[in-house]
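In response to reviewer comment 3 from the previous cycle, which asked for concrete evidence that the modeling workflow produces usable outputs, we include below a single protein chain processed end to end. The sequence was submitted unchanged, and the resulting structure tokens are shown without manual editing.
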Amino acid sequence: MRRFVLPIAAAVLLLTTACNNGKATPTVDGSVPIGKPAASKLDATSAFKQLSAAVPTAKLSGTVTADNDPNHLLGRPNQYTSKITFTDSRIKASDVQFTKPGDVDRGGAIEVFTDPTDAAARAKYIQAVTKSMPALAEYDYVHGTVLVRVSHYLTPAQAAAYKAAADGLS
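The workflow returned the following structure tokens.
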């Protein structure tokens, strides 16, 4: 009987670690619970703090609320639960002189959703809408529940830094 305890415990730990995206979370008594991992506490502001540490040219320009959301999506079913906008100092002022503060063209935006499927659906929608309108094009990077939207005024190499930062969000 004793020979089976260790292999079974190891199998439970491996299964739990796989279910928790590679992170086993022990409980107070040291055991590892089986089941769905706790929801991420990441919101747009905390995602931006991580992102701007990797891309220092990004500066927070606004926090979207239900009162000032130009898209009227904040908190709506299947839409973002938090959103911020940012500027990027590498974008020329003359390129964005006719845009409004908070426009993605000025740098970008971070939208956080409850479910990764909703984030992916939003990115797909934006790409479909902007496909035939190059002036509205943007780079969109989805990492879990986070959608990072980046201005098309950045070069592909500059935008790649945002992709790398988005891929590292935790």
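Residues 2-19 form the longest helix (18 residues). We consider this sufficient to address the reviewer's concern, and the full set will be provided in the supplementary archive.
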